[in-house]
Design a protein that fits this description.
Blueprint (H helix, E strand, L loop, with lengths): L2 H21 L2 E9 L5 E11 H13 L6 E8 L2 E8 L11 E6 L2 E6 L9 H11 L2 E8 L4 E4 L3 E3 L2 E7 L2 H4 L2 E6 L8 H22 L1
Parallel strand pairs: 1-7
Antiparallel strand pairs: 1-2, 2-4, 3-4, 5-6, 6-11, 7-10, 8-11, 9-10
């Protein structure tokens, strides 16, 4: 995956939120699954809104959409529409400030601060606050190991959920820290190899002795 495509994977949610805020009322559900190597194997975004809001924002979304990285689907029910965006390939963020996944001392730390990356002038804040009141985000994160620290609304083993409304969205940093599976800890593969060789040696020795 080249740098440009990786960058698009990193900023797509910002683009989506920008157009939804401009257009008005909508609910966004984000699903993220993180692998032990810090890649994202599953990335899905559902946008539920009205046909009027859809017509205002779909052009902007499609003009910034990378069909090599994502699938785009639409489901209509009367005046309601759901836009479904799913990743085709493992993703990796190149935004070291606003979206990071890193390993620290046999733990993995996930941070997503992209919601707070909008302009902050007084005039823009008044406009954004009014629009944000009709906007909600549900964020579902699955980590590779048990989550030990997070600001999530709900935690269940290796899964966490955030349910944000209005100005909570721009004031909340998605944060979760989890344990790493033993096989992803440096040196673990070497230990397994040594144990395997020892077991094999014992089995061969017993066969020869028998």
């Amino acid at each position: 995956m080249n740098n440009n495509r990786r960058l698009k994977s990193g900023i797509i949610i910002v683009i989506l939120i920008f157009f939804v805020i401009i257009a008005g009322c909508a609910t966004i559900s984000i699903f993220v699954k993180v692998e032990p190597d810090t890649t994202i194997s599953n990335y899905k975004v559902n946008i539920e809104t009205t046909s009027m809001v859809y017509s205002l924002m779909i052009g902007g979304i499609k003009s910034n959409f990378d069909s090599n990285l994502f699938n785009l689907e639409e489901k209509w029910t009367g005046d309601k529409v759901t836009i479904i965006i799913t990743s085709k390939v493992p993703l990796q963020s190149l935004d070291p400030i606003n979206w990071t996944i890193k390993k620290v001392n046999n733990h993995m730390i996930y941070e997503d601060k992209r919601f707070s990356s909008f302009p902050t002038s007084d005039e823009e804040n008044v406009y954004s606050s009014a629009m944000m009141n009709s906007f909600s985000v549900h964020y579902y994160l699955e980590m590779p190991g048990k989550i030990t620290n997070s600001n999530a609304d709900k935690i269940d083993n290796n899964k966490a959920e955030w349910h944000l409304q209005g100005n909570e969205i721009s004031n909340t940093k998605i944060y979760a820290e989890s344990e790493l599976p033993a096989f992803s800890i440096p040196g673990f593969e070497v230990l397994i190899t040594i144990v395997g060789l020892c077991i094999a040696s014992i089995v061969i020795f017993k066969k020869k002795g028998g």
